[in-house]
Structures are given as C-alpha cells and as structure tokens.
Amino acid sequence: MKKKKSSGGGANWMDTYGDMVTLLLCFFVLLYSMSTITEDKWKALVLSFNPDAQKTIQEVEGNKGPSADLEDQGGETRVPPVDSETQEEIDEMIESLYASLQQYSQEEGMENTLSVEKDDGKIYLKFNETAFFNGDSAVLREDAQQVLLRVCDILNNVADAVEEIRVQGHTAQGTADSPNDPRVDRTLSSQRATEVVIFLQQYSQLHPSRLVSEGFGQWRPVDSNATSETRANNRRVEMIISGRNLQSEQLGESVQTYIDQSNS
Description:
45% helix; two-stranded antiparallel ribbon; single chain; alpha+beta; 8 helices; five-stranded mixed beta sheet
C-alpha cells in the first residue's frame, strides 16, 4: 500500500510572515529616513508613490480652520499665523510669554490666585475659583475680566507662536462621603471653561480654532476634599498654552497634500 505524499502546505504561513516582517522593516527604515524632515525628502517620498504628482497651491474658502480668515463681530479680519518664524524664534516667544505672565502675577501680588508654571514646552496657568467666579456660578466676575484682559494683551504679543490654548474647568466634591450630582458637576465645570474661552476669543488675536474648553467636574483634584481650604484648591480654572511645532505642521501639510493629489 502506497503512503500518501505530504502536501508540504504546513509551512505556507512562513511566506505571509516573511512578507509582513519585510514590510515592517521597510516601514521603520522609512520612518528613520524621515527623522529629519526636509522639503527634498518629502518631494522624493511623494514622487515615489506618484511620479506625476505636482506641487499645487490650494485656496481655502470659508472658516474651515487655522488657515482660514475670520471676521469678528467688529468687522475686523484676524489673519492666522504665517510660517515666517523659525522654530527657535517660536520657542523664544513662548519663553517670553512665560516670563511676562510670571512678572504680571508677581507685580499684581496674585501668587495665591494665579499660578504660572512651565513644563515640557507648555505653560500652565491656574486660576483660583474665587478669583473668577462666585459660588455655583459660571458668570465671570468683573475683576476676573480685568485679569483676562491683561492675559489677552500678553498673549497678543506672541499670538503667532501659540498652537493651542486648552482651558479646563474643575470643581470640588462638596461632601466627603457623597460625590456631586454629575449633571450639575460636569455642567458647571464645562460652562466655566467655556466662558473663559469665549472671553479669549472676543478679546485676543488668537484664531478660534486654537481655543479649546474642557470640563472635568470633581474628578481631577489636586488636593483632598476633607476641609474647606483643601476643597478651595480643587475649585479652579486651568489654562494650558502650547507652542507651535513647525516640524509637525510640515509633516501634516505634506501628508495632506499627498492625500489630496492621490484622490485627484
């Protein structure tokens, strides 16, 4: 009786595995080659996928993002930042912004109500709740508006260097053994952050697409809720200011250009 010959198909999975490893290797080599982004490299990359690709200038109509003009209520047109600065200049402007905000806080004796810190290229402003809002209210106090006007003046000096301002609202747990009502808690913190963002949009030269509001309620405390003093530390509005990264912007623009040309 003859033995059946083995089909030899048991190792076919190795072909697929080998192809996958080869593709991964090519992908990481491509990432490494793009670690320093230049216009010539991106041209070579785009042409490798599409030899007929042409560099085109696209006009964006309407209010569709940072590259679009915006007419405010006063009828003036605020022009978004142009890529005339180098990364070194942008970093210097952000450092100048940090120094100016610190100086303002110290000169006005606001160390207890306005905290200014800098970490990993971002500036963190923390406003005590009592400096901005009355209890359980989302209406900006008049003295808070004066503070924000001064902050807007400082921001306007470096508007071209700012990538994003993220405003975050926080509350405190009212009683130690019972969480806040989630609807009231979340709504109040979100409304307070939104009020600050609206003020920045009205009185600063920053493009509205660069302004973001968030409400966290009681769930990101910086202190305990055991006493009225510690709860006061948790009731706050924070502002996180990020500087522009030209390398990331160039990467995004090049990828979008390739997508647009591939779809055309």
